[in-house]
Automatic annotation (TrEMBL):
<protein>
    <submittedName>
        <fullName>YecA family protein</fullName>
    </submittedName>
</protein>
<dbReference type="InterPro" id="IPR036255">
    <property type="entry name" value="YgfB-like_sf"/>
</dbReference>
<dbReference type="Pfam" id="PF02810">
    <property type="entry name" value="SEC-C"/>
</dbReference>
<dbReference type="InterPro" id="IPR011978">
    <property type="entry name" value="YgfB-like"/>
</dbReference>
<dbReference type="Pfam" id="PF03695">
    <property type="entry name" value="UPF0149"/>
</dbReference>
<dbReference type="InterPro" id="IPR004027">
    <property type="entry name" value="SEC_C_motif"/>
</dbReference>
Amino acid sequence: MKTGPLNESELEWLDDVLARYGNDHSIMDVSELDGMLTAILSAPYAIEPAEWLLSLWGGAEHVPRWANDRERDRFVNLTLQHMDDVAERLSDYPDQFEPLFGTREEEGQDITIVEEWCFGYMRGVGLSDWSTLPADQQPSLDAIALHGDEAQLSRLEALSADEYVASVDAITPAALSLYQYWMANPQTAPVNVPVKNDNKTGRNDPCPCGSGKKYKNCCLK
C-alpha cells in the first residue's frame, strides 16, 4: 500500500465512490470520511477496521455491490492510506493537522463548510465509549458537536457572524486536544461476554455439535 497524503485525483475518486454508493445511513463524502477517521484515531481504545468499515456504509446490509474486486480494494487501500496520513499528522506533526473541510462558492468567494466533517467525527465517536472523558475536555467535544449534531441546530443558528467564525476556528484545536488526551489516557476496550445458555443438554439428547450422536456418546465423553 502507498503511503503519504492522497493527491487531488485520489480524493476526488474517493468522493465519487462515496456519492455513488452512498445511502441514507452511510458516509457521503471525503470530508465526512476524514472526520470519522479522525475520531476513530482519537478514540479511547483501538477500533478494528472490520468494524468501522462496516459503519462507514451504515452496516453490513448497506455495503456496496462493487463493480469488481479492484474497485473495492482501491477504495479500502486509499481510505487506509488517508487514515495513516491523518494519524501521522495528529501524532507527529500536529501543526500540520487540518480537518478536510468542504467548500462551496458563493458570490465569487469560497465558503468553508465544516458540518460534514463534524458529523463524521461524531459518527466516529459513537463507535466507542467516550463516557469517561473528563469535564475539562468536554468543551472540546462540544465544539465539534455544535456543528455535528442536529440537536445543536437551533443553537448554531442563534450565533452571530463573529461567534460562528470563532466556533469554526475552535474545531481544529479541539480535535487535537481530544486526540492528545486519549493517547495519554487510553482505556481498556470492553470485552464481549458470550451469551450463557441455561438450557443444559441432557445425556441422551442429540449432541449440540451436530454429529447426530447422543450427547453422552459424543462431546460429553
